[in-house]
Predict the 3D structure of the following.
Amino acid sequence: MTNPTLEMIHGLLYGYGLRVGRLGGLGRFFAAMLGDHGDTIPFIGPQIHDHAMTVAQVPARQYYFDAELLVNVQMAVERWYGFDTYTIIPDAYNFEVEALGAKMIYSDIAMPTVDTNVPLIKEPADLDRLGPLAPSKGRIPMGVEVARLITQKISGPLAVGFFCSPFSLICQAMGYPKAVRALKRDRGFAEELFFYAENEAIFPYARAQYQAGVKQTIGADAWACFPNLTPELIDEWVVPSAKRLLEKGKKELGMTIMAGQAAADYCEEDPDKFDKEIMFRCWSTARKTFLLDVAFSGMGRTQDWNMAWLQEFAVQSGKSGRKIPIFASLNGRFMRDSSPQQVVNKIREWINIMGRDGRLLTFIANVPADTPPVNIHAAVQAVHTLGHYPIAADLASVKFQIPTFQPFDEWLRGQPEADVIFKAREKREASTYVLA
Amino acid sequence: METLKTAIVEGDDRLAASQAGEALASGLDPLDVLNRGIVPGIQRAGELWQTNQYFLPDVVLSAEAFKAAMKSVEPRLKERQRASVAKRVVIGVVKGDMHDLGKGLVGAMLTAAGFEVTDLGIDVPLEKFVEAARSLKPDILGLGAYMTTTMLQMKRVIAELDQQGLHNGLKVMVGGVPTSQEFADEVGADAWGKDAMDTVRKAQTLAGG
C-alpha cells in the first residue's frame, strides 16, 4: 500500500472506466465503492484482533495494553493474509466503561471483558456519580495512541479511530436486559442514558483522539444488531443518537464521529426464521448510520442466507439502474469450522450472484481466534482469482487450487513489525495458544 | 393464572411477581402456579419468538418477568424437587468470560421445563465445574462461552472431566454465540445448544436417554 491519495484516484478512474494498470488494495476498494468495479473484487480487512493475537503468539496482557504492539500485530497479520485494506481495531467496546470504573476481568488469553454482573449504572443517580469520562483514565490513553498510530501508519480515508457507540456502551455499563428495559419501559431514563453516553463518555474520548490528530472515528454498535433490537427501536433510538454525535463532532471539533456502525445488522441465527421482509427493513435502517450508502451484511449467519436477496436489495436501493455497493461478510464461525474448499465454494456462489455487475466488496465478520489460517488465505485468493473482472461466464470452470503459504514467522522476518512482535513474545507468560 | 401468564408474555415483572405471590398466598399449589401460569407464559413468549413476532427485547423482558414470578415460587418448588426425580442441570460460563445474558435465558427456560438448575455463574474456573460435576452429580453440565478465545476453555473442562472419569454418566452441553455443532463435536461435547429453546429440547433428549 503506497500513496493512499494516488491509489484512491487510480481506483476512482478505474472504477469509472479508465481501466489502466493494476490496482492497489485501496484502489480496488474505491473502484468498487464509487465506480463500477476494479480489476478484481476487493477483500477488505476484517475485525481480527483476537485472531491476529493468536497468529502472532503475543500475550493478551501485553497486546491489549500496548498500542504499538496491537497496531503492529494487526498490520502484519493483515498484510500476511493479503487483505486489500487494513482494519485495525482493539476491543473497542470496553474502553469507555473501563475508564469510567466498570469492573473488568483481565486474562492471559483473551481481551479484557466487562463484568456486567456488577453494573456500572443501575439507576439515574449513577450518572451524576460517574461524571464525565477523564481521558487519562483506564486504557483511554492507549486507545488514543492506537487511533493516532492508525492515522499515521495507514493515513488516507480509511484511517479511523474507534469508540463504543451509545447503545452498546449502555449495554456494557448496565447489562443488555436493563438497557432494553429502559428503552421499552422507562423512556426518561433511556434518554438520560443516551445523553450521558454521547456527551459525557464518548465525546471526551473523541475529543482526545482529535487532539492527537485523528480526523474521523467510528463507533462499533454490535449490541444494536437485530434481533437484539428491532429496526423500529433502532430507528427510534440508535439512528437519532448517531446523527446527534455526527453533528456535534462536526460542529464542535470539525471531526467525523460515526456512531451506530453495524446497528441493524441482521444476526438471526436460525435459518428457519430468516425473513426477507425483516432483512430488508434491517438493511434499510442500517443505511442510515453509514456515511457511504451500502448494503451491508455483518455478523449474521450469512453462509445460510439467500444472497440473491442482498443483491436484490442493493439493486432496488440504487439509482439509475446502478446498485449500491454490497459489503458481503463471510461468517466468522463458517470460516473457522469449514474446510478451505467449502470456503472457496461459498465465494464462487456469491460472486456468481453479486459480483457480475460489480460493486461487491467482501470481508470476514470478526475472525475467531482459532480460525485455520489456510481458510483465510484461501478466501482472499479465491476472491481475487474468481472475482477477477470480467467475471468468467462459467465460474465452475475456473480452476482454483487451495493455496500454500509461507508460515507467519518465516514471513515476518524482515517485515517492519518483526522486532516489536518478537520482543513481545519474549515477555510472554506461560499460556497456551491454539493455532490450527 | 391468566393474568400471571399475560404478565410474563408481556414482560411485566412487577405484575408477574405480585400475581405469583398472591396465587401462593391464596393457597394454590406452587406446582399449579408454575404449570398453569408461569410456564405457559414463558412458553408463549418462546412461541412468539419462534414465529418472528417477538424479538430479543421482548423475550428478555418476558424472562425477567418469569424470574420475578419464580422468586416466590422457586423455594417452594425446590423442596418438592428434592423429594422427586427432577433432572439436574449445572450451568456456567467458562473462565475469562463475563457474558451471562444467554446463560440467564437458558437457565430460565430449563427451570420452566422442569429441570433443577444450579447456576455456577460467570467466569467459572475449570476446577469449579469439575467439583460441581463430582459433588452435585448433575445429569447435564452446560458450558457457555461468548468469545472465540474463552470458548477454548470448554475443551479443557471436558478433557478434565474425561480424565477424572466424570463424563461417563454425565452429558455435557456447550452453547454461546461463537459455538457451533462442529465445535461441539471437536471438543467432545454431547450436544450443542443453538439457543435457549434448542438447549431445552436437547437437554430433554439427553436427560431422557
About this structure: Residues 2-83 of chain B form a domain with the Methyltransferase, Methionine Synthase (B12-binding Domains); Chain A, domain 1 fold (CATH 1.10.1240.10). The first helix of chain B runs from residue 2 to 9.
